[in-house]
Design a protein that fits this description.
Blueprint lengths: L3 H6 L3 H11 L3 H5 L1 H9 L1 H9 L3 H12 L4 E2 H8 L3 H13 L3 E4 L11 E4 L1 H6 L5 H16 L17 H11 L3 E3 H7 L5 H8 L4 E6 L5 E6 L4 H9 L12 H16 L11 H10 L13 H14 L3 E4 L2 E4 L11 H11 L19 H14 L4
Antiparallel strand pairs: 1-3, 2-3, 4-6, 5-6, 7-8
Length: about 375
């Protein structure tokens, strides 16, 4: 079985130069074969080379990956419906990226018995992302979310927030635990990113590759580190249970009362008058976030106006807001039913109305139901 270091020694100068240029290697790294190979096998190096290959090349590479003992041109022709002449041309292009090598077999006049092999070093760093891997990952995330006292596992290499590995993990956490290599690099500027990747990969971070075109490298946060990062990023306050009761529903009614009694008018700049906004905000009950911090009354007011607009309880007539509870009159004595109606109705405005845009993102009702189910099962809400 051939090794990639041997192929590097035999690379034509122009092919080597193109790889050096693509990987942005320094002159010293370009001259030393060991540094050249390590740069090529790094997360960034592999991602750079494979995002640059075409659809057919990626198909052939994937087929070769699945066959540890190599795959013939004839087998590729049969599986991928690509004629053997085209397969040979693709193999030549892949060899120029140092992904594969070809063993010729001239027992016949044709090339269908020629075999493509992945270099063992390339096979060792490619990690295809499959639906089964995603399912297992998400199942573990849900299991940890449902655990009222999940184990707190600290990432390797220290937990100082200014360190590059920690910044990378915090960014990945804030991106939902899954991001492409490019997204993560854009969000975490700085040199030595591949060194941080190497430090974290296999423990706090897992790298996977989408082998369908276009090629993508995905960084996936190990779910076991979610509790630690949640605590470090959001902090733990003395408040361990937040209870807002039906304060938001009451705030809807307080908003209605203020607007219907005193009015809500627009200025010439097409914004609400400060005196009207202040009156509404002062009338609202406090609502607390998950960490016990009070939510800004201005955001609550905007949310109330948005909900009323979506429920078709609110309209704009010239420079004045007109409000009515007619569509809610059957729900006023049942706060739970009113809350469910709010959850089903919230969403982006039907028209381009920045005045009534929600201050927070809205999601389908199923998302809220799933979150509440998890919180109820863990005993984190009642």
């Amino acid at each position: 079985m051939k090794k990639i270091i041997d192929a590097v020694n035999k690379l034509p100068a122009d092919t080597r130069d193109s790889i050096v240029k693509a990987l942005k290697l320094s002159k010293s790294a370009a001259r030393r074969d060991e540094l050249f190979v390590s740069s090529l096998l790094s997360p960034g190096g592999l991602n750079t080379l494979l995002t640059g290959i075409g659809h057919s090349e990626l198909q052939v590479l994937n087929a070769a990956y699945r066959e540890e003992n190599g795959i013939t041109f004839g087998e590729i022709e049969k599986t991928l419906k690509i004629n053997s002449t085209a397969v040979e041309e693709i193999a030549v292009r892949l060899q120029k990226t140092l992904m594969v090598y070809v063993l010729k077999n001239r027992q016949r006049l044709h090339n269908k018995l020629d075999k493509i092999y992945l270099y063992p070093e390339i096979r060792g760093v490619i990690n295809p992302l499959t639906p089964e891997i995603l399912e297992e990952h998400l199942s573990l995330c849900v299991k940890l979310l449902r655990d009222p006292r999940p184990p707190t596992k600290k990432p390797p290499g220290g937990t100082a927030r200014q360190s590059l590995p920690m910044k990378m993990l915090e960014t990945l956490y804030c991106m939902g635990g899954l991001a492409t290599y490019e997204e993560l690099c854009e969000s975490v500027p700085g040199e030595n990113r591949d060194q941080a990747f190497a430090e974290l990969t296999g423990s706090a971070l897992r790298l996977y590759h989408s082998m369908s075109h276009p090629f993508r490298t995905y960084a996936m946060l190990n779910p076991e580190y979610l509790p630690f990062l949640a605590e470090k990023i959001h902090g733990i306050r003395s408040v361990d249970r937040v209870n807002n009761h039906y304060h938001f529903i009451l705030n809807l009614l307080f908003t209605f009362d203020s607007v219907s009694s005193f009015g809500l008018f627009l200025t010439k700049q097409s914004d609400f008058r400060k005196i009207d906004r202040k009156r509404i905000e002062d009338s609202l009950l406090k609502v607390y976030g998950p960490d016990g911090t009070p939510v800004d009354p201005a955001r609550i007011m905007k949310l109330c106006l948005h909900i009323f607009r979506q429920l078709k309880c609110l309209s704009l007539k010239r420079d004045a807001v007109v409000i009515s509870l007619k569509s809610l009159e059957k729900d006023l004595e049942n706060p739970l039913r009113m809350l469910l109606k709010v959850l089903r109705t919230g969403g982006p405005p039907e028209q381009n109305e920045p005045l009534f845009a929600p201050p927070i993102p809205f999601y389908p009702t199923e998302v809220y139901c799933g979150l509440m189910e998890i919180l109820l099962r863990t005993g984190r809400c009642a």
